[in-house]
């Protein structure tokens, strides 16, 4: 993003510009200071680490906690600003509205992001509602919307603040675990990767428990989860006219495919992620994933009965 005088450009389409809010101006000043740049210097792909560090500093995290206490879901998958209800109306004038680049991330977070992106090892989680399409056939659109928002609220409560909720795709949630964001200033080494793997598995279990698994009753939602850890390119992806704030790479595709092979109440994680955990978890198996020529090593975890 670049600020010229009293205008901000980059998020609302080619050649468009609008006045930045006070919050956006202050955030950009903080980010430029973190990147050690003058106010008139544009951000570059080399500034992505500064972006993650700025977003994870104590003052930024404290403000995000305030945003997440405002009603209601859905929210920005990065800062937690609400897009709907009273909370959405309160923060929209400050620039917290869905971005055209990624409607699951707010304009403020996306506009602050440097151009391009960076390649690093990240964790990816996909969680999907089982049987949602057939169940929706007997419900009104309003009932379907309410059910989805309840599921998204569960995901937001579990994943924030460690994860970045990159996608809300109908009945599916995609979350990214980015080490520089989760552990600002720390060395991105094997210990950091092990921490990411631990948080991911904990979040998978917490999400299943939050929707009712492990209780005497029937879960509110039937959920299957896929996890993987590996190299990805994360940032503003695409050309000038059409691009998205997201992550791409084999790790994203693999996590999605693993989720497709997980039954309701199960977690299917890659063997490469399992090796980062302090103790063995799940049952080893090989699964045939679309796009891969060889069977893929994975571990199937079911904490709540069924398979051993």
Which characteristics define this entry?
308 residues; alpha+beta; eight-stranded mixed β-sheet; two-stranded antiparallel ribbon; 10 strands; 36% helix; 22% strand; globular; disordered N terminus
Task: Sum up the overall morphology in one term.
Answer: globular
Multimerization status: single chain
Q: What does the main sheet amount to?
A: 8 strands, mixed
Give unreliable regions as ranges: 1-17
- Give, in order, the helices and strands: EEHHHHHEHHEEHHEEHEHEE
How many β strands by DSSP? 10
Give me the secondary-structure category: alpha+beta
Alpha-carbon distance between the two ends = 51 Å
Q: Tell me the helix content.
A: 25-40%
* Mean pLDDT across all amino acids: 86
> Beta-strand level of the residues, as a percent range?
15-25%
Radius of gyration (Å): 20 Å
Number of helices: 11
Describe the model.
The protein is built from 11 helices and 10 strands. The protein is 36% helix and 22% strand. With 308 residues, the protein is of the alpha+beta class. The N terminus is likely disordered. The strands form 2 sheets. Strands 3, 4, 5, 6, 7, 8, 9 and 10 form an 8-stranded mixed beta sheet that branches. A two-stranded antiparallel sheet has the order 1-2. α7 runs antiparallel to α9. β1 and β2 form a beta hairpin.
